[in-house]
Design brief:
Number of strands: 16
Distance between the termini: 25 Å
Bound molecules: coenzyme A
Radius of gyration: 20 Å
Oligomer: single chain
Helix content: 25-40%
Strand content: 25-35%
Number of helices: 11
Largest sheet: 5 strands, mixed
């Protein structure tokens, strides 16, 4: 892309937030979400199915998590396959060709393989010949960090269209003999197209992301990386599966999701009553309702679809956004608050003025 005008930077100061805004040729560059596509595999694993696999009950799972069922990918389906399906829907909805994409950000903790990056596999399958891209690993915050990154690249003026895809095949790293984790997760994918907004549109308003590595031990997949490469022993010890200390993660998630939402709203000059709809990461219904209560958000403003999908890690936010649109709860002009907490720990929140 050629810029014909010298970009000028303007520092905009609000109550306690300072950020730079790029003007090109006198125009303010902003990013918006212009299309959404989702994919979930057909096979459904219900709580009643899980009752036959581990010592658990539908009642316990419903009461402690709010999950009734989750979708599970077939044996020949990998993360890139679901990502491509979601991407094709988003491109079709926007009415553009993959060749028009500038970049692909693939958010996942379950790449097809460690390298090459799954973004490359998707780029090839889509025929997105002009795109660069990369994988972004931030557990359940991956998709939000992808949105944040794409919004900044577009606002900087160097990129016009970036496809952010969250895709996770969690069933490949879940131990279906461990009742404390196998009930929680499902598979799925979602894609949002982030592109330059028109002058009369708002789109991306702000973000607040944090990481806290002191929580790394509480939720992880221990083996398969350079610290503990795959051996017969790591496989026998089931160390290629998700391990979690649920209560630690639960308490942290409630506290930090509330804090980043509260602070992000305040630094952008909003209060909770300005929020049209909150779309949180779906890890546990009790986490979401506790955060909403602390923020003072009524339940009709908070999207929960964990009952049907479980925790799909990088895909929860696009899947919940699709449901919010379908049910008429998310409309053009709405102020949307996205929020997540994940392994790492990773924490994040985004504010967008919805433009679709
Ligand atoms: C995992 C989670 C649902 C467990 O719920 P919890 O209320 O914390 O339950 P606990 O782990 O304290 O376990 C309570 C009891 O239920 C049992 N239990 C655990 N899983 C069970 C299951 N699937 N079915 C029946 N009982 C179960 C435990 O063994 C324990 O029994 P005990 O009291 O005899 O020792 C909850 O901690 C959670 O959602 N944590 C956060 C998860 C998360 O957000 N992860 C992803 C972050 S993005």
């Amino acid at each position: 892309m050629t810029l014909f005008y010298e970009p000028q930077r303007l520092r905009a100061t609000t109550a306690n937030n300072e950020r730079s805004i790029l003007f090109v040729g006198g125009f303010l560059l902003k990013a918006k979400i212009s299309a959404l596509g989702c994919y979930t595999p057909a096979r459904v694993l219900t709580n009643f199915d899980l009752e036959k696999m581990v010592e658990t009950s539908n009642e316990w799972i419903m009461e402690r998590t709010g999950i009734a069922e989750r979708h599970i990918a077939g044996p020949d389906v990998a993360t890139s396959d679901m990502a491509v399906e979601a991407a094709l829907v988003a491109l079709e909805r926007r009415g553009i060709q993959a060749t028009e994409l500038d970049a692909i950000i693939l958010c996942t903790v379950t790449p097809d393989m460690l390298f090459p990056s799954t973004a490359c596999l998707i780029q090839d399958r889509l025929g997105a010949k002009g795109a660069w891209g990369f994988d972004l690993v931030a557990a359940c915050c991956s998709f939000l960090y992808g949105l944040t990154t794409a919004a900044h690249l577009v606002s900087a003026g160097s990129q016009e269209k970036i496809l952010v895809i969250g895709s996770d095949t969690m069933s490949r790293i879940i131990d279906y003999t461990d009742r404390s984790t196998c009930i929680l997760f499902g598979d799925g994918a979602g894609a949002m197209l982030v592109e330059r907004a028109g002058q009369d549109e708002q789109g991306f308003l702000g973000f607040l992301n944090e990481i806290d590595g002191s929580g790394g031990d509480y939720l992880k997949m221990p083996a398969g990386g350079s610290r503990m490469p795959a051996t017969l022993e790591t496989v026998q010890n089931r160390q290629h599966f998700v391990k979690q200390e649920g209560q630690q993660v639960f308490k942290y998630a409630v506290r930090k999701m509330y804090e980043v939402c509260r602070d992000l709203l305040a630094r952008n000059g909003f209060t909770a009553s300005d929020v049209s709809v909150m779309i949180p990461h779906q890890a546990n219904r009790r986490i979401i309702t506790a955060v909403a209560e602390r923020l003072g958000l009524p339940c009709e403003k908070v999207v929960i679809n964990i009952d049907r999908y479980g925790n799909t890690t990088s895909a929860t936010i696009p899947l919940a956004t699709r449901d919010a649109i379908a049910s008429g709860r998310l409309k053009k002009g709405d102020l949307v608050l996205f929020a997540a907490v994940g392994a790492g720990y990773t924490v994040g929140a985004n504010l967008w003025r919805w433009t679709m």
